[in-house]
Amino acid sequence: MRQTTGQQGFSLIELLIAVAIIGIITSIAVPNLLAARKSSNEASAVSSIRTITTGQTIYHQTVGQNREYATSLNTLYTNRQIVDAVLASGVKSGYTLSVTVPASLDSYTSNANPVTFGTSGNRHFFADTSGVIRYNLTAPATLGDPPVQ
Predict the structure, then answer these.
(1) Closest by CA position to 121, among listed 55, 45, 64
(2) In the chain, what are the domain boundaries?
(3) What Rg, from alpha-carbon coordinates, does the chain have?
(4) From CA 42, how far away is CA 70, in angstroms rounded?
(5) Would you say residue 3 has pLDDT above 80?
(6) 100 strand-pairing partners
(7) What is the pTM of this model?
(8) In the prediction, which pLDDT does 79 show?
(9) I need a labelling partner for 58 at 20 to 30 A (CA). Which of 23, 91, 99, 107 fits?
(10) What is the C-alpha to C-alpha distance for residues 72 and 56, in angstroms, rounded to an integer?
(11) Tens of pLDDT along 26-59?
């Protein structure tokens, strides 16, 4: 007959195996989670650019004197809250957002660039009065870059 010593629990070898399995699972899962986060940030940036484009169109047609465009994201927020406060702050979901308007106020460009390239996103985005959203993989996007598909 086998005698029990009164000790219960896992042996050291069993604990080491469990820790090794957890480490393997973590090494597989973490890169996938980071890639999903970047993808989510990029989708949010595209959505933000669309919101800015819509906001500029609304401002141009209803608020702007002489059919002008808003000169900043904050202007789109303070005038009838066309965009929300988070978007008006200029930073959302790992991207910095900006609007540039020439002195004539008859057009605009908007950009979304990753706060930390490669960590918060891999693409830069751009839109103008045409409403076409464009991207670049290495530098801030411009009119000459390909459209987002």
Answers:
(1) 45
(2) 12-136
(3) 25
(4) 24
(5) no
(6) 109
(7) 0.83
(8) 81
(9) 91
(10) 10
(11) 999 999 999 999 999 999 999 999 999 999 999 9
